[in-house]
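Why this split exists: single-chain examples teach little about how molecules sit against one another. For that reason, every record in the complexes split bundles all components of an assembly together and asks for one structure covering all of them. Below is a record exactly as it appears in the raw files.
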Amino acid sequence: MNILIIALKEIKTTLRDKRTFTFMLLFPIILMLILGTALSNAFSSTTPVGDLKLLYKSDIADKQLTQFWQSFSQAIEKEGIVSVPIEKGVDGKQEISANHYAAYAEVGDQGIAYYGSSKKTIESNILQGMLTAFADKYNLAAAAMATDPSLAEGIIRDANDSAAKYVKETSLIADKQPGSIDYYAMAMTTMIALYASISGTLLFWVEKKRNTIVRMIASPVSKGEIFAGKVIGCTVINILLVFAVMLVSKFVFQADWGNHLGIVLVVLVTEVMLAVSLGLVLSYWKGDSARSIVMIFTQISSFIGGAYFPLGNSGESFMGFISDLSPLRWANQALTKIIYNGDLGAAWPAIGLNVGIAAACLFIAVVSMRKKEAF
Amino acid sequence: MNVLEIRNLTKKFDDFVAVDNMSLSVSEGEIFGFLGANGAGKSTTISMVASLLRTTKGEILLLGKNIASHGKFAKSNIGIVPQDIAIYENMTAYENVSFFAGLYGLRGALLKERTIEALEFVGLSDKGKAYPSTFSGGMKRRLNIACAIAHRPKLIIMDEPTVGIDPQSRNYILNSVRKLNEMGCTIIYTSHYMEEVEEICTRIAIVDHGKIIAEGTKEQLKAIITDAKDIWIGVKSERPSAIDNLKQIPGVISVRLEDNVVKIASKGEINNLNQIVQQLIKDQIEIRSVEEQAPNLETVFLTLTGRNLRD
Ligand SMILES: Nc1ncnc2c1ncn2[C@@H]1O[C@H](COP(=O)(O)OP(=O)(O)OP(=O)(O)O)[C@@H](O)[C@H]1O
Ligand SMILES: [Mg+2]
């Protein structure tokens, strides 16, 4: 109950702060609108479906499997995907790093190995979506071929009948390309979630500055309850703000958030948790300068994490490595895969990293809090 | 019964001893004055009683129970008015009182009733919906008090509740302290203003360098220094250098200047009035009146600590 009282106070006072609204709501929405409109041309020209190029290497000895593969590549070609057989002596993986293809597949009697481009993220995701569905069947058939060829025939026959169908299905998703407003709706929402770290640094700082922490500690409410109440309140209000930004982008700007809103929200929630705990632990560690540190950190993370320009199609490998350090990049990659590829599994790395780091930060914060006399 | 008992209390900040083996007890119904110059250790002592700071040594008993083992009980029975105003600027006066009272377990109708009562008590009932950012210094101080009393604590600790406010608010606060006391609250009152302490406190402790150097009623304290006197000289103009010269005269303990009155504390047995007057004339300061007084608390304080209460 005490936790609830403190959390509600936190939410109420944050809502009253006009700066919260300007910064956490107005700012991302306006940026979304400006960037989304200004860069709309850049978007439609850089990621058309026609650019989907798959490089493959075929080492198939078995006739049926060869046919199976060919019927698949014909099917995807109808959907506008170019599949190119690899030339002798060329290293497929290098072609991917060199950014010539969105994906590379090695097809053999044992099965299919798939390599996606880490730069052409969007294209690679789409191709992966199609290939995984096919590869499941193919690998099964390949395995059966080694032990029971008649069983393999059955699998291939069944699959061939439906091959066109599932390629159609995935390609429907493949047609979903992020327009500029879609991209910036996502990027600004994940950016603003990261900005929750600022309220994390202020959480106890304001209470100390106002001296109200004295009253809290003097009251019979335990330090743990105070801590929990404040952290929960701060996290909840920031989640609400992030949701508000998302809802505005969805219903006012008609941005595409895909068909899996639930898991999208979970990614955003964990990102806010990460941000708040990061800010909190910094405020223990760095005191008054925590806020500036967090400001710089969030801005750099936003910049390299794709808040202002999409990273999927750009950048050298060094930039790619750096941007992988940005929590925004994790979130944006996960959300892109969920929204445009229906790949729900892509949420886990982001959720895992967010929750893991948040838990570590909270742990350190609690330990520092217990050591200190006050907070 | 003793509401508060402090036994051999010590607080060190690293090597610095802020409170030094202090013992004192406050019984029920008292308004206990805590007098001391800047840095004497008043707030540090209070903070330990209110569980805001850990003790280095010693123990504190509230209503007979050790606060180290009965933290929740102690905290529930104490109301603290911090020296630095502790209120939320972005919450209304009502919300401030209600929030803090809520932390003491008050809920629902009772919470509402006590919140209104506390606001009425400090004369802010018509300001319940207003934000403290629109308040004067005195009103903020009063709200600071309201936030400490809504849960009806047995012991109210006020750490300089009247700093920097207008005389009207000050009188209001002093009256409410008396009223709280009449209602059965025991009060610990810290102040830099001797007159306040002299006016409302039933017992006074003088603190210096973390130690209690004297304790008792005002009469008892004044009786400690029968060998001192106060000389008040009304002057037309004032000059700091003249004050320094006065300090050189034998027997003079301290000199301070208040509203064109040079207030000199001097040893009783030495007759130095002539010398003092002559020095002032020499410094071309026009004398308007000379008065010799029995020692007041301020003199007691000066004699015991060698310091002014206020810098
Ligand atoms: N957290 C702290 N760390 C180090 N020293 C401290 C701390 N708090 C107080 N002190 C020191 O302890 C001494 C006593 O401080 P305290 O605040 O108790 O004095 P006080 O009697 O309340 O003075 P004032 O009248 O100015 O409020 C001072 O010298 C102060 O500098
Ligand atoms: Mg003090």
